[in-house]
Amino acid sequence: MKHFLLIFQLLLTGTFTIAQIRLPYQNAKLPIDQRVKDIVSRMTLAEKVGQLNQLNGGVFTGPAVNDNGQKQKMQMAKEGKVGSMLNVIGTTETRAIQQIAMQSRLGIPLLFAYDVIHGYKTIFPIPLAEACSWDLNQIQLNSSIAASEASAAGIHWTFAPMCDISNDPRWGRVMEGAGEDPYYGALVAAARVKGFQGNLNDNKHLMACVKHFAAYGAVEAGREYNQVDISRVLLWNKYLPPYKAAVDAGAATVMNAFNVFEGVPVSGNKYLVTDILRKKWGFKGFLVSDWASFKEMIAHGYAADEKDAALKAFEAGSEMDMESQVTIKYLAELVKEGKVSVQQLDASVGKILYFKFKLGLFDDPYKYCDTARESNEIFTAENKLVARKAAQASIVLLKNENKVLPVATGKKIALVGFFANSPNDLLDFWIAQGKATDAVTLYDGLKNKYANISFSNGYLSDCTTNDSLIAAAVAQAATAEVVFVNIGISGVYGGEERSLAYPQISNGQIQLLKALKKTGKPIVALVSSGRPLILTEAEPLVDGIVQCWILGTEHGNAIADIVSGAYNPSGKTVMSFPYAIGQIPVYYNHFNTGRPDSTNGNLSWNSRYRDIPNEPLYPFGYGLSYSTFGYSDFNISKTVISKTDQLNVQVTINNTSNLTGEEVVQLYIRDYAASVIRPVKELKGFQKISLKPGEKRKINFVLTAKELSFFDAAGNIVFESGKFAVFVGGNSKEVMQLDFEVK
Ligand code: NOJ
């Protein structure tokens, strides 16, 4: 019956003839590999190249290149010259365009792709914030909800997760990743892939796309699209682990980065794409370029013209061409000239078609066009509840002098700060179909908790201020019991092409804080930003600092939950907060240098700044709770182990407060001497635990060869004997230390 209906439907849309329906690739009972082989054998050269062509079909998320309008694109789809479209959304649009593609000679469905980065319509915290929860189950759940909403709107494929390690808050895209640590970044990347993809056997998940492969997070000076110049040792140890973990988690696709590596743009970089991704890692999915990155090899100075760009990309192992159309224009010609092999082309086309079969699109091209799901399963109360939980867990409490927080809901509050009441500054660049007007502002969130609250702007939308705004804020503060000041930068400064030379609190906001401080009232700074800002000047002016990030749909409610004490903060930052701009990049897992900075007062001839400390203001892993925790009974099972042994590490955590709270217990190691130098600390384990007042818990960690080894420049795993340190603590700085030896 099901098959009959399908045949009937296909005949109705004029897609198939009866004869075609009997072809092996149309037979849902055959194994996918057989169906792929069959269809590839029937395709013309032009149709094969068409599968490698991805065109934009909606809002532009990059510069218009070769764009000849929607009419021409539809004609190309009808002729089988398009394999995928991005930015087409909604069941009506995707169905209409799919119907056109199904009129192509072989009836090959399109893949619809979209940047579903942290939610589709229910928007979750930005990925950087979400990572501060250290809760991999929550992270996976968030991605799976994003996938379920997007798939209900016709989308098959998300361009996420972004797996770029970065320690440069000047770069606007730090908001899309999981921070500065490769070990944690790898775990988060895998959780996100699992959440987005499930096992791709229903219509509630999306294909994931590991991006931006590779090392895009190392862009020089934090300037978007800039060059990358790093060693292979750094590449392997610091930048590759999250991409690798995402590939191992089964990600269907990988996206080329915009940057160069060793002087060769990634899209044309055989070492990265073929040698590492395909050969060393055995990646079975397919590659998509970043927006026009094939063509951009001309501007980079690597390809002479469009044809050369098409050749160099394909030769390197890159496959689908997003938006630059150099592949559709020149690849067939290159095959005819014998410069590109048909076998290589068939292999790439086969991989793309494999996923179209896997998603079930050959059997039902409209499988993701379920209007009932689109109306009932998007932006639901249940999804918003999860988003609120995720947002609560993302917030990081940085300062809480004299227990200024939590503030009882009966108190009289003065809320100051333009952003607190500005929906347009609430969400970031990657909000898919999220609407600022659907999100809860800070002011609204606080009003839901505090009956006695007043508001004033304090500064203007550009973060400058003036005497009258300050006077109004001061007058308002004078009559309040506690002052909440929303400082930071607009959410719209988070994301692509949003590099900032000054990731800091504006002069206007500092002026405002100084004036408020004079009132003598307790002041809590609520910092919204898509990156760690420099808080050094603001810090002494306030009693409390809450790093709120950009939290999505439930922004205001989640912050209100924290400041009122309805939720006990548990987030820990996954990026260091620089002390000053001149320090950037500053990160916990740095190298020691030959002249490490001394803390014993002997400061001569050391690796240090003369005007500021080397240390960041807040280190990686830092975050306070309303509870307090004691660490004791730290011990290791042996002081000497063999290479096949495991080391058991134990520590006892005690909740020394009268409040139930969560703590992220972190374990770091240091390899003192190795054939290539190793960082002064490397995260190698963590556990997030909840403890009742007075409760004590013994925690066990295990260190094995896996945690104690590293990569050499050729990407080989190396485990060397020698002296190591193991550290345990509640952040990367305040730790206990024990040494051991591997013999
Ligand atoms: C360019 C961005 O770098 C990438 O992350 C995104 O997925 C594509 N544009 C498509 O919007």
Explain what the structure shows:
By secondary structure, the protein is of the alpha/beta class. It contains 22 helices and 26 strands. It has a six-stranded mixed beta sheet with strand order 11-16-15-14-12-13. Strands 4-3-2-1-10 form a five-stranded parallel beta sheet. It has a five-stranded mixed beta sheet with strand order 18-26-25-20-21. A hairpin with a 2-residue loop joins strand 7 and strand 8. The N terminus is likely disordered. Bound molecules: 1-deoxynojirimycin. The site of 1-deoxynojirimycin has 9 residues, from loops.
Please provide a brief summary of the model:
Mean pLDDT is 96; it is low at 1-19. By secondary structure, the protein is α/β, with parallel strands linked by helices. Helices cover 30% and strands 17% of the residues.
Ends apart, CA distance between termini? 68 Å
Side-by-side strand order of the widest sheet: 11-16-15-14-12-13
Shape: globular
Small-molecule binders: 1-deoxynojirimycin
What structural class do you assign from the helix and strand content?
alpha/beta
- Output the radius of gyration: 27 Å
Q: Mean of residue pLDDT?
A: 96
Number of strands: 26
Proportion in helices: 25-40%
Can you count the helices? 22
- Sheet of most strands: 6 strands, mixed
Low-confidence stretches: 1-19
How much of the polypeptide forms β-strand, as a percent range? 15-25%
